[in-house]
């Protein structure tokens, strides 16, 4: 598979000193983060990860195993590395993938991980049974999360949304936590009314890194990045500059 199929845009702007890879939530494609590309400061080149089985990759088989997804994504990311420091940011399932990708990349990993709407402990992970339910049950879950408004009933649109969501549920259900630790700092982002993730659960990141930079909380539900993109981008890229310049900087203790 061509690298361009996995990353949008296919190459990071060469004039930027830093890079960010954005990994979307379950059921979503790279387009979920396209608005963020315009929010990035001039010194940060951002690319959105596009998993198979959605949007322009709809004809490709979706990945239903997190190990397979991380292995494939790690190959593409390694191929794209050009010596510039970079960060990983993911929301919900994207944060899980970003975490496991950072683990898999090891010494080639990011200088900063942004974990939004997911934590190693306390997140309401979907079960394999839920992923295997008929389409209407998966659709009901999508509506519950707010990813498909109740008034949307177009069968063709729903046919595009339900299959990747089902695959991503199975991918999440395949995950078995091994407690792996990271060598880079982690910053957390959380919606104060997120029914999938209690605020206290974000503290579980402290057991996965020596440099947990705290949790930034926003007054919204699970999809809070859609509303607070400018604030999140400003905070994350500011931290990225700091830790790219001084990777060994002492831990902070900022908790929102």
Shape: globular
| Order of strands across the main sheet | 1-3-2-4-5-6-7
Name of the CATH class:
Alpha Beta
Strand content: 5-15%
Helix/strand-derived class?
A: alpha/beta
Mean pLDDT: 88
**Quantity of strands, as a count:** 7
Oligomer, anyone? single chain
Gap between N and C termini: 41 Å
The CATH topology name reads Rossmann fold
* Amount of helix: 25-40%
Outline the low-pLDDT stretches. 248-256
Rounded Rg = 17 Å
The biggest sheet amounts to: 7 strands, mixed
From the structure above, extract its key features.
alpha/beta; Rossmann fold; disordered C terminus; single chain; 15% strand; 256 residues
Polypeptide structure, described:
The chain is α/β, with parallel strands linked by helices and 256 residues long. The radius of gyration is 17 Å and the shape is globular. Mean pLDDT is 88; it is low at 248-256. The protein has a seven-stranded mixed β-sheet, sandwiched between helices. The protein has helices at 3-6, 34-37, 66-80, 93-105, 128-131, 135-145, 155-173, 229-245; strands at residues 7-8, 18-23, 44-49, 86-91, 112-116, 186-191, 212-218. The protein has a single domain (3-245), classed as Alpha/Beta hydrolase fold, catalytic domain (Rossmann fold), CATH 3.40.50. It contains eight helices and seven strands, in the order H-E-E-H-E-H-E-H-E-H-H-H-E-E-H. Helix 4 (93-105) links the parallel strand 4 and strand 5.
């Amino acid at each position: 598979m061509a690298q361009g199929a996995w990353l949008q845009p296919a190459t990071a702007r060469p004039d930027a000193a830093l890079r960010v890879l954005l990994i979307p939530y379950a059921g979503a494609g790279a387009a979920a983060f396209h608005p963020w590309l315009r929010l990035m400061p001039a010194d940060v080149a951002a690319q959105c990860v596009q998993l198979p089985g959605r949007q322009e990759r709809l004809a490709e088989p979706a990945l239903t195993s997190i190990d397979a997804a991380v292995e494939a994504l790690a190959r593409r990311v390694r191929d794209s590395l050009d010596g510039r420091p970079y960060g990983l940011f993911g929301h919900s399932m994207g944060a899980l993938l970003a975490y496991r990708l950072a683990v898999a990349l090891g010494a080639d990993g990011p200088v900063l991980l942004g974990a939004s709407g997911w934590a190693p402990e306390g997140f309401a992970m979907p079960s394999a049974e839920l992923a295997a339910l008929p389409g209407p049950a998966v659709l009901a879950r999508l509506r519950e999360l707010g990813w498909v408004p109740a008034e949307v009933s177009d069968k063709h649109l729903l046919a595009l949304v339900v299959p990747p969501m089902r695959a991503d549920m199975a991918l999440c259900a395949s995950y078995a936590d091994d407690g792996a630790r990271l060598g880079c700092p982690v910053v957390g982002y959380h919606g104060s009314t997120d029914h999938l993730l209690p605020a206290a659960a974000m503290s579980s990141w402290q057991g996965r890194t020596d440099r947990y930079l705290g949790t930034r909380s926003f007054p919204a539900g699970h999809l809070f990045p859609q509303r607070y993109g400018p604030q999140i981008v400003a905070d994350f890229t500011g931290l990225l500059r700091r830790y790219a310049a001084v990777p060994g900087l002492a831990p902070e203790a900022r908790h929102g």
